[in-house]
Amino acid sequence: MTSGLATAARFGALFKGGAALEALSKVEWIAFDKTGTLTEGKPVVTDVVTWQGDETSLLSLAAAIEQGSHHPLAKALVDKAEEAGVSTLKADNISAEAGKGVSGVVEGIAVSLVALDKLESHHSINQQQMQEAQALAESGKTVAVLFEESTAKGAFAWRDELRAASFETIDQLNQKGLHTVMLTGDNPKAAAGLAGSLKMDYRAGLMPEGKVDAINEIAKTKSVAMVGDGINDAPAMKAATIGIAMGGGTDVALETADIALSSNRIERIPDIVALSRATMANVRQNVTLAIGLKAVFLVTSVLGITGLWVAVLADTGATALVTLNALRLLRFKSGEVQTTPQRKGEIALNKSI
User: Distances in Å between the alpha carbon of 10 and those of 13, 25, 97, 168, 176?
Assistant: First the structure.
């Protein structure tokens, strides 16, 4: 176990003890958060659709209620407004609801930015506007609608590009017999596009508690690992058999996880899965070897075939053998993920779409 933990550290994975290493070797499912884990975590605003007013006024209202937020989508929206040179408005009574949107009062008018798949009956949006927004979502983008009072003024669309290493990482995990699933708050159509390109399952439209429910559902019959990087992922990581935190994640995620990656290199996950399995195979070999030798010399000593000193030397030799066998793990090689030309083409196609 010590050799396995030392090798994992060399790969940039810090395990919180041998129990985590053993648990990872038995995992059958691996669930991934989308933003910042499978994707770069740097979304950009790709579309600003105006239904009333102009793009400048739309950006100004949206940026006002998103000011100060640490959410990647909010930061991207504020950056877009700054790039466009939009004047900054002041918003009061700002309220954010995780997974749904944000609202506030700008110059005495109630303004809200609501995720497309979280719209409710009191939101006034006509069929044509809904179709425009849905078309953006179907292209794999995250879409939110801006309302002034309850009237739709326009929509924003973001795209967060997949990591180049995500394709090969998921491929390797699938080849190892693991079932991979993406958990995201995105609308189902956008999630389906990304999951399809990665060849993995998905659960979409999930609030933080929805991720926990999804993990609990899988955990009823299978052992599952959860990979994430944000505060919202921490409860799901706690609910999973084992939690894996990305190195650039929040302090809460890193403290909750059983395994912490020292960097944002998702490609290390197949390596540590393979290492955990190799470690447990080594443990089984050592136990078999040690008990087997003791059993043989117990019998031969009782029958008078071997003497006491030979049995003592054999026991000491068994200790040396299992130690040497365990040290082989220090030579475990990393199957570094390489982005093949074919994968580079898929990534370029994903971006163009």
Answer: 7, 18, 40, 21, 22
Give catalytic residue positions.
33
Tokens of 242: 């084992």
Q: 3-state class of 226 per DSSP?
A: strand
Instruction: Tell me the CA end-to-end span of the chain in Å, nearest whole number.
Output: 46
Segment 85-142, tens digit of pLDDT: 888 788 898 888 877 889 999 988 899 999 888 888 778 888 899 999 988 888 778 8
What's the rounded Cα separation, in Å, for the pair 154 and 173?
Answer: 41
CATH class name, domain 2-41+162-272+338-352: alpha beta
Calculate the alpha carbon distances from 241 to 288, 295, 320, 345 in Å. Answer: 27, 36, 34, 36
In this structure, of 105-114, 241-250, 292-301, the range with the lowest mean pLDDT score is 292-301
Global confidence as pTM: 0.76
* HSE-CB for 27 with a 13 A CA cutoff: 34
What is the rounded CA–CA span in Å between residue 5 and residue 1?
Answer: 6
Please give the helix or strand (H or E) that residue 108 lies within, else none: none
Same fold, 2-41+162-272+338-352 and 44-159: no
In angstroms, the CA 95 to CA 110 distance is: 11
CA–CA gap between residue 126 and residue 118 (Å, rounded): 16
Tokens of 283: 């443990």
Positions of E strands within the chain? 13-15, 29-33, 44-50, 91-97, 101-106, 109-115, 142-148, 151-159, 179-183, 201-203, 224-228, 242-245, 259-261
| Separation between Cα atoms, residue 332 and residue 219, nearest integer Å | 30
Is the domain spanning 44-159 CATH 3.30.70.2740? The answer is no
Establish how many alpha carbons lie within 13 A of residue 242's alpha carbon, considering only the half-sphere containing its beta carbon.
27
- What are the domain boundaries of the chain? 2-41+162-272+338-352, 44-159
